[in-house]
Protein 1
Amino acid sequence: MLIDAHAHLDDEAFDGDRESVMKKIREKGMIVINAGSNIETSKFSVELSQKHDFIYACVGIHPHEAAKAGQNYLETLKQLAEYERVLAIGEIGLDYHYDFCDREIQKKVFAEQLELAKELGLPVVVHDREAHRDTLEILQKSGVKKGLMHCYSASLEMAEEFMKIGFYFSFGGTITFKNASRPKQAASKLPLDKILLETDCPYLSPEPRRGKRNDPTEIETIASALAKLRGVSIEEIERATASNVRNLFGRLTLTGGRNR
Ligand code: NI
């Protein structure tokens, strides 16, 4: 079974035809883990997971949104995390590429949400863009034991450090891009039992649809790109990544969809 471990079906890019995208996903017999970016999209993620048995949710405040988190955001996230189809706290982390939010605030909101994940015993889904050192250091200090580095873009050496604290890595469209040597290297060299597939849709469509709106069914293209990079069959990628998703997200029961 193919599982998209990181998607944003709540995004306004899907407002015009969300139900037909959902139908397409259902027909493929896939599972999608949808990540919130703020309170509103976290709530929407939970709603999607209640409505569709092939959708699971993560709830969290993205670093771009950290300054707008609001006073009671931790309490709200905690309530949302009580839904059993919420698998993790995410997408949380640091983004020093865009710097849409003051770095000190990003770090504070990241650390607070790690504390919440620890309290709830949930894994985390981490966004790290050009902030590898600080991300690693904050995670090491946090005491969080399990998580996913989504759209992993740091080095193989750093991946060793993330693995020591129980982290997995997901790869998406970037492993099909010509110029993306670092993600390709990590995707081909990391142990297969640490790798997940993601689309990060509506962003990061794989080649040859780069630049167009992405959706979870593109996970097939990404799975075959990973199979090619590693010189294994697509079936092996499918089997390994599905089992990794189960190992990482303890609450995932895989009751929805078909073909399993
Ligand atoms: Ni994302």
Protein 2
Amino acid sequence: MSTWANLGLQDSASPLMEQLIFFHDHALLILVMITVLVGYLMFMLFFNNYINRFLLHGQLIEMIWTILPAIILLFIAFPSLRLLYLLDEINEPSMTLKSIGHQWYWSYEYSDFNDIEFDSYMIPTNELMNDGFRLLDVDNRVILPMNSQIRILVTAADVIHSWTIPALGVKVDGTPGRLNQTNFFINRPGLFYGQCSEICGANHSFMPIVIESVPVNYF
Ligand code: CUA
């Protein structure tokens, strides 16, 4: 989970989030290189008093600085597309979790196991234990096995919600009348916190998600 002064991405707990972080760093590096180059040129030009009276046009340099940015953009576009299709790839899931967004809580269904269903509400601040996280902990956690491919189906009962777990790289909108699908693979045990990330109403900030990842034989 995110802790104080954590401005970057959270530590990844799934292979897809790892790829997302790699892509973020890759894009950021290109961004920094362009910013430094352009910043340097602007700085040097600003303090330069010389001009060339005969220079009116330069076909070659204009060709270069038109085509070069297009090529640089391709180096971002292709990895981005690769990741986009990778995120939607469903790879023989060993279980399915259904998640339904309500105003303002999540309800879950484990349809593989005799129709287990439960609601997951945020624990109010005045009922919080000493080790609980304010506005983040829930009364019923989603317990999932680690090291297995999990499919999640997301929908909503009233307005649009979004089932989002940053550490797992999952973000799916729950839309009334639609069923959205994605999948993830948790590669370590632990608690993973998330929040709804669609502006779904007055108590939008109070419908967190907690995943408890456990070894398969404990699950
Ligand atoms: Cu549900 Cu925001």
